[in-house]
């Protein structure tokens, strides 16, 4: 079976900035029926699932989102690995405990990029924290906090959510 191509790509204006502005997390279990995947992989979230989200504000240029397609022609397989990496400042017991709880859960992660796009990672099974590294650095100007990596694998590329949906996700 062949898969038909649907569009080409043209060069656009140089108008976007890289990086992640902010993250919101929700721990499983979730009501999967509240998450509807629409056209072009855009997800809508029912009002009943717009609460229970926790916001992580980030400093500039300390976070990234990567969605990598991996294909194996011999096995005719294709899957995507989504990785979120971010830095949280300030080593202390409260932050350490919160990150420990984050690592113990399956997660939905809403990501707001510096380019204004928003994405949802972890639907339908939940993303996992795969690494947390606490560090003091060596020099006065070095990082003092936590490097965190979250990973999710699935058979489809990353889902998008609208900015309005992202903004509706509250604690």
Number of strands: 11
Structural class: mainly beta
Number of helices: 2
Summarize the amount of helix as a percent range: 10-25%
The sequence of SSEs as H and E is EEEEEEHEEEEEH
Strand order of the largest sheet: 4-1-7-8-11
Question: What is the overall silhouette?
Answer: globular
* Low-confidence residue ranges: none
Kindly report how far apart the N and C termini lie: 46 Å
Provide mean pLDDT, rounded. 95
β content, as a range?
35-45%
Question: Could you tell me the radius of gyration in angstroms?
Answer: 17 Å
Largest sheet: 5 strands, antiparallel
Helix-strand layout with pairing:
Blueprint: E1 20-27, E2 35-37, E3 43-45, E4 54-57, E5 63-72, E6 77-89, H1 93-104, E7 107-113, E8 118-121, E9 128-135, E10 145-154, E11 159-161, H2 163-168
Antiparallel strand pairs: 1-4, 1-7, 2-3, 5-6, 6-10, 7-8, 8-11, 9-10
